[in-house]
Each structure stands twice: as C-alpha cells, then as structure tokens.
Amino acid sequence: MTVEPVRSAGSEQTAKDHALIPEPVWLAANKGVRYEKRPVKDQDGKPVAGLYSAWITLDNPAQFNSYTTAMVKNAILAFREASTARDVVAVVFTGAGDKAFCTGGNTKEYAEYYAGNPQEYRGYMRLFNDMVSAILACDKPVICRVNGMRVGGGQEIGMACDFSIAQDLARFGQAGPKHGSSPIGGATDFLPVMIGAERAMVACVLCEPISAHQAYSMGMLTDIAPALKVDGQFIANPLVETSRTSDEFGRFVFGTPKTGDALKAGQELMKRGTVDLSLLDGNVEALCTKLLYTFPDCTTKTIEELRKPKLDAWNRNKENSRAWLALNMMTEARAGFRAFNEGTRETGREVDFIALRRALAANTPWSDELTESIQPRVHKS
User: Fold this and answer.
1) pLDDT band (50, 70, 90) for residue 380
2) CA nearest to 95, candidates 65, 117, 116
3) What is the pTM of this model?
C-alpha cells in the first residue's frame, strides 16, 4: 500500500499504516474477493484526483457469489483496508455479474465439510460474525450494490450495509427454515428494525422471495434502478406489478409477482431484453458523489449512531447464534444442506418435511438413517 507523506507543523511525517495485513499480501491470493479503488466523481461528473470509492466484489458467479471460508476471510480484510484508507470516501459492496449479489454461504462447502462437524462450523461462524462486524464497524459509509439475488446470508450481509441500491430484477429473501438453518446471521436482528416485526416474521419464517420493488416499498432499499433493456429502452421489471393497484380484497399491491396472461407477457419481454446495469452504477456513483460533499468525521459519527439499533441487536445475539448454528449442523442443517447440494431440478432441493415431522412426532432420534430417509427423491408414478 502506498503511503503519502503528511505535512504537519512545517515538517514531513510518514503516515502510520493501520492495516492489519499489507494490501498486496492478501490481494495476491485473490480467493473470491476483488478489491479496487475507483475515482469518486464531483458534481460535474468529473473524476476527483486522489479520492476514491473502494469496491469490494464477491467474485464467485458460478455459485451465485456464495461465500466460501476463504472469501469470508478476504472480505474481512477488504473492509478493514477500506476502513483505514484515508483516501476512500465510501465503500461499495457488490457481487460479480448480473445474476446475484450473494446467495449466502457456499452450500457445497457446508454440505461436504461442515455438516456433521459442529466444532468446525463454530470456527467458521467466528469468521462469519467477524465479516458482519467488519461491515458494521467500517469507518466509511457502506453501499450495497445489489446486482442480482440477495438471499440467505447474502441478504444478511447486505442488510448490515448502510445503504442498498438494487437493480429491479433482483430478488430478496431468507432461506433458513426451508433449508435447515435459522436466519440468525443478521436477519432476525436487522429486519425488525428495518421493516417491522410482522413483516420480519413473514420474511424469516416463510422464506418467500420478494421483488426489489417490494423491498423498496418496505423501506429495505435506498433506491432501485431498471435493468432490463428492450428495443434500446429501459423498462421496469415486467414480471411484477409496478403500479399502485389493489387486489380483489382491496389490499395494496406493489411489486408482487404477476400471474396469468400478464406473467406470460412479462416473460416474453424478458426474452427480448438484455440486462444492463449502467443505471444501477449511475445511482451508486451519484450516492458516492453526495457523500463526497460532507464532512468525513461528521459523516462517520452519524452512521455510527444510526447503526446502533442494528449493532445492539447483533452484538447481543451473535455469540449465542454462533453456538446454536454449530450444534444444528448435527441435525436439521446436516439434512437440509445435503438436500440443497445434492438435489436437482427434478427432485427439488428440500427435504421431505412431512416425513421428517412424522418421524419426530413418533420420537425418532436423529441418525444417519433419518437424514437419508428425508432426502429429495424422484417420485415415480
């Protein structure tokens, strides 16, 4: 890392390096996380010399930017690097490609290594907790650039950020109770603060995906930007309702999935269009520009105060959550992660919930046999 001299009282002093590890050392490994600085633009749209936004990119698009153990380590170091960089105005946290910001922990790694190894998963969860804490403790404003799906643990690390700007084809949601876990890596802490208790209950327990338009209307996002280009023009997500309408019961409808002929028409538009994230990037850059024109220490203090409701809940619960998640790797997580990892489009990726509940109602203990018996199977007629 290049350190510029700082002039003080008529003399030159070399600035102290507050990074834990020199940037070139951890970046050389390049294990699924990219770190780069991009010039911040002024109000006229011109790059400002010597001032940057730090872009931290989860780079595992083949697995929807799910984070491996190595990626979690590098994310921690990246946030620490950005936090201490004197020339960084804001941090942009995003994913590679246009399909996903992040879908959470790497299920293949979970199923093939951590399942059945609670002591190892406890060690992993120390790293995960440190990643969330690194976001919440960053001395710079953190913007989540939601370039695609933000699901499961990806939703949790996204909500730890200070701002979220999404392309409007993105989907959001939790996955825990559907796949053998509990969304206690941040969702149960952050969602009640952000969208209220009832909506948080629906999101965390039922694990039903919501659109970017719904997330925006709930107050989960700072802004959304169209990403689908048809015949050279940007259009709003054609698969969801984007107007203020009501259903047959008079309930407010906004951002909910279309059905019937409307859905078919939307799907046809999707086939004709291409995904273009230039408007998303423009909105992210515009926010970085707005942050440029603020006092840096006053901004840091303000975001520290505004983070407190999320941070208080997170710090109160994270160690108990870590211990429970580790032990759960012997039972439901072991079954659920294996089902997701080994399942297919034909079989599905969820366990047989009815068979499981019947077995537990009959006081059947957890065993390899029980885990095997509830795995998804092809049902032959």
Assistant:
1) very low
2) 65
3) 0.92
